[in-house]
Amino acid sequence: MNLKIKKILLKKNKSKIVSLTAYSKNIAKILDKYCDIILVGDSMANVLYGHENTHKISLQNIIQHTLSVQKGIQKSLLVVDMPKGSYNNPRSALKNAKTIMKKTNCDGVKLESYKNNFKIIELLVKKKIPVMGHIGYTPQFKKKFRLEGNNKKEIKVLLKEAKLIEKAGAFSIVLECLTYEAARIITKNTTIPTIGIGSSSYCDGQILVTDDMLGLSGFYPKFVKKYVNLNSLIEKATKKYTREVKLKKFPTKKYFLNGSRFR
Predict the structure, then answer these.
(1) Range of the domain at 168
(2) Number of domain units in the chain
(3) Considering the domain boundaries, does residue 132 fall inside one?
(4) CATH number of the domain enclosing 31
(5) What's the predicted TM-score (pTM) here?
(6) pLDDT tens across 140-184, in order?
(7) Which residues are annotated as catalytic?
(8) Closest Cα partner for 79 from 99, 114, 106, 45?
(9) How does pLDDT run across 122-131, given as a tens digit for each residue?
(10) CA 196 from chain center: how many Å?
């Protein structure tokens, strides 16, 4: 087993797992100092490409961004989202997962739970491809954004789903938009770490979309805390630059190349 994955597994019930998304080397290099897991998420569809959902990101998009992210990582576990349509059946799932692993040298892939794709997880794990599961609100397959696990019946279904993913061999599982009680019960009754997003502090770890956390994406559901407002900082810097260019205050002699060639 991958040593990085072993470290993640050992954190179960002991210390919190920190995870964020990245789509480029520059951001990954910063996150790598603090994160246990960095996810190249299909959320890039919304964050970078301006799509309404995550459905239009291709396998090639994911691979290209992962190649960039990989250059900024030294210690974190690198997990890659398999985009919608890339794991419709066992054959295509295995082919595409192998392609991602081979071309990016990532540590594992993430699959959203859909109907009975537990067999796909089992197949990938059997073929030495580490898998992170994902239950609750799964953006690739569910249109309505709602809290799940609101009663005993729903919690029972979610727990069964989590246990089947665990049994299939996944090394961890994302719990998205679950009630605190559902998150608590699932975390308590599974041996693999749970990574929460909008699912309370009961989970073994947390993940957010980095651009949301930095106040850059414009998408801020209740479970997202903005730790800084980069939108505002970038606008201020751009406004200052614009003013200095128009007033001929930039560039000054300090920024001249003194006759040397431009690179």
Answers:
(1) 3-229
(2) 1
(3) yes
(4) 3.20.20.60
(5) 0.95
(6) 999 888 999 999 999 999 999 999 999 999 999 999 999 999 999
(7) 176
(8) 106
(9) 999 999 999 9
(10) 11
